Every structure is written in C-alpha cells, then in structure tokens.
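One-letter codes give the sequence; each number marks local geometry. A record appears below:


***
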Amino acid sequence: MLASIAFTLLALLESVQAHSAVLGSGSHARSVELSMCDTQQPNDALRLMHSEFSAQRKLRKIKPRDPEAIVIDAYFHFVVGNDVSAQYTPDKISQLATAQLDALNVAYAPVNVAFKLQPTSLTVNGTWAANGDDATMKAALRKGTYSALNIYFQSALQYPTAPGSVPDVNPSSFLLGTCAMPSPVTVTTCTPASGGTPAQCKSITRAPTAYTDDGCNVLLASMPEGGLQDYDQGKTAVHEVGHWFGLLHTFQGMTCASGDGGDYIDDTAQESTSTSGCPAGKDSCPGSPGLDPINNYMDYSSDVCYTGFTPQQQQRIVDMWGKTRKGF
C-alpha cells in the first residue's frame, strides 16, 4: 500500500510542474500558468521492455539502427471552442499544420523518422477543446492504425476530467501536453496444461477499439507561431511524440540514487529535478557524472533550449517502434 501511495505521489510530482508564460502579444498578451506534461508513469510492461533493451545494449546484443527510413502517417486534429473558432480558417490550419510537421521532421530526422501529414480535421467543441470526455473525442476522431500518429491540438487543454463531465476551464492555466505510451499490440494467451495435454499458447492481435485512446493531446498555442511565448516552436509536440515512441522523462524517478533506473538511457545524465526555462547550466545530481540534460527534448525546458535526443534515445525510439508499433 505504501509503495502504491509513493508511486502515485511521484506521478503527481513529475507531472504537476507549473511554469509561467505569456500568451499572445501586444495589448492581447496575458500571463498564464502552464502545467508541463501529464503523460502517466510507465506501466510494468513498458519498464520491462526498457530494461531488456538496456541490458541488450550493455551486452552488445542490440542490433544497429535500421538504415531504412521510418515513415509515419500523422493525423492532426484541431479541437477548439466556440470562443476562438473564427480564428482557425482553412488557411490558418494549413499554416499551423505545415509548420508543426516541419518541426517534428527536423527533430526526428537524426533518428531517420519522417512524418507524412494526412488530412487534418477541425472540430468545434468546447468540452473536448478543454480535454473533457477525452475517450469520446478520440473514439470519434482517431484515424489510422496503431502505427499512425494522432495529435489532438486543443485550444484550452486542461487536466483530464471524468467521462461525461465538463472541465472547469481556467483561462489563465493550461496543460501543455500529454500522450499515450506504447504497449504491445499482440498479446499471448495460454491454456494451462491439464490431463496430460500440454499447454497451448497463441498470439492475438488487439482489435482497433483497444487503442482508440492512443495519441497525444497538445495545447494548440504551443504550435509554431501559436502565440505561447517561449513554447511556440512546436517542440511540445516533439516532447509528447517522444513519449508516444516510449521515451521517458530525463528526470524519471526524480532521484540521484545510483541504483535507480531513471529513464533507462545510459547517455542521459542522472537528473532529479525537471528544468524550467533555459538556464546556463544545471546539476541536480552533483555526485553523478555529467550535467543535467537541459537541452534534451525529454526534459521540461523552454523550446529555445531544446536541441535533440541522445544517440541511445535515438536507438531506443527505433527499438520501441519495432517492438510495439511497426506493422500494426
């Protein structure tokens, strides 16, 4: 029970990191509070996959990254409230989608991943725009297979609410993003041995309805030129898509303990606190090698601070893709 409580508190500490920002410009500028990322803690299956990939790398059993490009269909869903719907003309949506696609492709080019934009959609629904009834929204809007990336750009993104409830929208407080992490699409079920009959196992591929909640929710204003100062280069989506591939926060676990697995990536320095803004430097674990990876897409830095993924993160993206999404 204590372990469960500690795990829940850790999830809250990692997700509820409020940063100040300015939304809009000139006479329309206003201060807002941002909660950075509400992506949930990795489940046991994902942790096991990370542990296995990490162990294989250390034993040099990991295969080199596939030289062939990974091309992923990307569906962008614009979900806005009536109060701002007039701003999102077809030309504006096209401009935002193209700029966001470019930001993703630049960020993931070193991994040899390319995103191919599919037809975008615009939905005017104030409840969905504020992240109310997320399951119903995704069941209605999601496109493609499990290997297709769906991003819901919402104009008033808040923390999720219970199904059917209307979120209490605070115009001065928003959630930057959240994303579903991957899990194996194929599951193995076994019939136990009995009466001299050996156990029999078979693999079953989950039905599409089992992954309608897959995808990323991103605050629309964080898109390139979306108006959210310090967070308007499209890199919130880059961060959340990192989770979609299975990457964890660089400060996963929020500890300097040497025995903690952290993000299961050896070439990201141990980090016990998330980063705010873009400091000149930061060392939250002075007893461990290296400075905090403040320029890493999987920290909480401002957009101008982000520069890339480490080589092992790049490898992990490819490995996780092959294990959980490729071909599904």
